[in-house]
Amino acid sequence: MKHIYFAAGGTGGHIYPAIAVAKEILRADPSCKITFFCSQRPIDARILSGTGFNIVPLPARAFSKNPYKMLSFIKAVFFGKNIVAQNIISDSAQSVLFSTGGFVSACAVLAANDLKIPTAMLNIDSLPGKANKLLARYVKDIFVQFEDTGKYFGSNRTKVTVSGCPLPSAFFNAAKETAMESLGLNPKKKVLLITGASSGSANINNVINYLFDRLESLSSDWQIVHLAGIAHYDTVRTFYKRADINHVVLDYCDDMPSLLAAADLVIGRAGAMSIAEFAASGTPAICLPYPYHSDKHQRHNAQYLLEAGCGCIVEDLCDTEKTARLLWPVLCELAGSDGKLRQMRQNCDKIVNPDAAKQIATMLLSY
């Protein structure tokens, strides 16, 4: 009996692709055991609690060049590695590890390497982070979303397979009516979805607040669903008290396939998972890449949609007024052109692989 371990935690972008692969594994081999090594962040527990998979939280910490935080990171890797090793050693099944990056990847991959456990890695960002580049030497296969990503793995690029991002099949067949009805939306109006991904984005929220008076000009044809993020929910809900446009404010959404199916246009960050979801659901996107990463990898992710003709890029200048001035004309142009939106939706079909999760699951089961 196989036991496949997933190292996935810290953000939804690391966990959701792993869940998609795990479900495909169970479809192919229902006897296979599944365990998730995750972080101790609340978002991990919220996402994984309803899956039925065995969950092992690890004391993982983010990598930092700060000497004090670096010490905390090293300690977390050491303790996490021991926890991973104890779980795998106690298991008599044939074990495999699949890492999707994030806080828990380092200790899990290092433990699996010590135990001679076959390991694969998923890197869905266009630019791999330092941890994934360092850990690549310890894995058999590296699955990536973007064609150009392989070159950043140096001598390990021969291990790279361009699979696309593994997503639940629901993204490819979700019904628009399901979300429209459940959220009480007007079926006669188009839907503008605003999202900062699973954690929300204060910058995006503030830009929309700044634009409220102008958004009223769209109210005859459009309505808004604003996915605020749990930490920002109360603040955003207060913003909308003065909004003269039909709207729904959510703190979190467990059914992104239906929500994106309902959306005619989305404004959001450009995390690798978000990019994949926008494309898979055929939702035209205005991307505001996260501006605080030193390597600007979200900017590279968004470029993928721009070049395919299914997305636009508006720079987050970390200044609410300046960013709003950039966003407004782009939003007006797309919101006022059904033809452009239709063409962008059609272009999404060119850049997705609906079988990514199945392809990776098949490979893991072959180890």
Q: Remind me, CATH topology of the largest domain?
A: Rossmann fold
The separation of the N and C termini measures 12 Å
Determine the structural class based on helices, strands and strand pairing: alpha/beta
Mean model confidence by pLDDT: 89
Biggest sheet character: 7 strands, parallel
CATH class of the largest domain: Alpha Beta
Give a topology summary.
Blueprint: E1 2-9, H1 12-28, E2 33-38, H2 42-48, E3 54-57, H3 67-89, E4 94-102, H4 105-114, E5 119-123, H5 130-135, E6 141-144, E7 160-162, H6 176-182, E8 190-195, H7 202-210, H8 212-215, E9 222-227, H9 233-239, E10 247-250, H10 256-262, E11 265-268, H11 272-281, E12 285-287, H12 297-308, E13 311-313, H13 320-335, H14 338-348, H15 356-366
Parallel strand pairs: 1-2, 1-4, 2-3, 4-5, 5-6, 6-7, 8-9, 8-11, 9-10, 11-12, 12-13
Write up what this structure looks like.
The protein has a 7-stranded parallel β-sheet, with helices on both faces. A 6-stranded parallel β-sheet has the order 10-9-8-11-12-13, with helices on both faces. The protein starts with a strand and ends with a helix. It has 367 residues and is α/β, with parallel strands linked by helices. The protein folds into 2 domains: 2-164 and 353-366, Glycogen Phosphorylase B (Rossmann fold), CATH 3.40.50.2000; 170-351, Rossmann fold. The protein has helices at 12-28, 42-48, 67-89, 105-114, 130-135, 176-182, 202-210, 212-215, 233-239, 256-262, 272-281, 297-308, 320-335, 338-348, 356-366, and strands at 2-9, 33-38, 54-57, 94-102, 119-123, 141-144, 160-162, 190-195, 222-227, 247-250, 265-268, 285-287, 311-313. α1 packs across α15 and α7 (202-210) crosses α13 (320-335). It is elongated and about 65 Å long. The relative contact order is 0.12. α5 links the parallel β5 and β6 (141-144).
